[in-house]
Amino acid sequence: MSTTSTSIIERAAATEAAPLTEGVAVEARPLTTADRCDACGAQAWMRVFLVSGELLFCAHHGREHSQALAERALFIQDESSRLTEGA
Ligand SMILES: [Zn+2]
Fold first, then answer.
1. Where does the DUF7455 domain lie (predicted)?
2. Structure confidence by residue, pLDDT tens digits, 15-74
3. What phi and psi, each to the nearest 5 degrees, are found at residue 4?
4. Cα(9) to centroid of ligand 1, in Å?
5. Which chain residues have CB less than 5 Å from ligand 1, an ion?
6. Partner of 59 for a Cys bridge, out of 3, 34, 35, 80, CB 3.0 to 4.6 A?
7. Closest listed residue to residue 48, CA positions, set 65, 23, 34
8. Residue 58 region, left (φ>0) first, then alpha (ψ -120 to 50), else beta?
9. H or E stretch at 56
């Protein structure tokens, strides 16, 4: 009985939390092994949302371009800390 109302609330809460910038759909889904660095093709650990689209970077290139990206990015999803967690 209560399961139906709970799932509706969860869905509504998830929808509200999603948009960060008005007019721009920013969806920070987790990075996977299928996500590749746009600079070198290594596994991506950073996703950078720009007005024109999104870019993926490995930890190396994400750090190398971090200053330029910080100036232009709407949002930066940085999962490079996951690299050290597992090692
Ligand atoms: Zn790279």
1. 31-83
2. 444 445 555 556 778 999 999 999 999 999 999 999 999 999 999 999 999 999 999 999
3. -65, -50
4. 40
5. 37, 39-40, 42, 58, 61
6. 80
7. 65
8. beta
9. strand 53-57
**What's the CA gap between 38 and 27, in Å, rounded?**
19
Model pTM above 0.70:
no
Which pair of structure tokens corresponds to residue 24?
């721009």
What is the CA angle 6-9-14, rounded to 5?
125
Quote the ligand 1 centre to 60 CA distance (angstroms). Answer: 6
Given a cut of 90, whether residue 84 has pLDDT beyond it is: no
